[in-house]
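Q: How would the C-alpha cells look for this protein?
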Amino acid sequence: MEKTSCLVSIVSAFAEEGVRYEGTFEASSDRIRVSWTQPEEEKGQGGSRFLLSYRVNEKVLVMSRRGSADSDMTFQEGEKTEGVVRTSHGDFDLEMETFAISFFPEERDEEVEIEGRIYLVKTAELSYDLCFPQQDPMRNHMIFKVHLAKSENYV
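A: Here is the predicted structure in C-alpha cell form.
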C-alpha cells in the first residue's frame, strides 16, 4: 500500500468539524488505513496519534489512539465488541455495539476547493453505542472526511 498525504476532519457527538489534521491515507483491495495526529486537549502535552484500519473483506474497523490516553476499539456492524482505554488513572474496559459502518464508498466521493486547491473528499461513517460498565450507553455517530489533493493544480 502506498501512503498518500491527506487532511482528515472528524464530526462526532464529542467533536465538531472545522479542524483538519495532516495525515496519511492508504488503500489496497483488502485494507484501508487512515492515520493523523491531533493536539492534546491540555496545551504543551504534544499530540495523540490516531489510526483507523478497515479490513475490507471482514468489514471490521479498528480505531487506535496513542497519546496522553491510549485506546483500542474494534467495530463490526451488528456486533458487540470490546475495547480498552488506558490512562494515567488506570485502564477502563468498554464495549461497543456497532450499528453501521460505511467506509469510504466511492459513490460518496466529492470534490471541494480549500484555499485554492482542489481535493477529492472521501467520507466514512460509523454509528455505535459506547458502553462503560455500570453506565448507560452513549450513542455516537462519527463522520470521517479524508481530503486528498487531486493534483498540483491550483484554481
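The chain has no helices and eleven strands.

The mean pLDDT is 89.

Upvote if useful.
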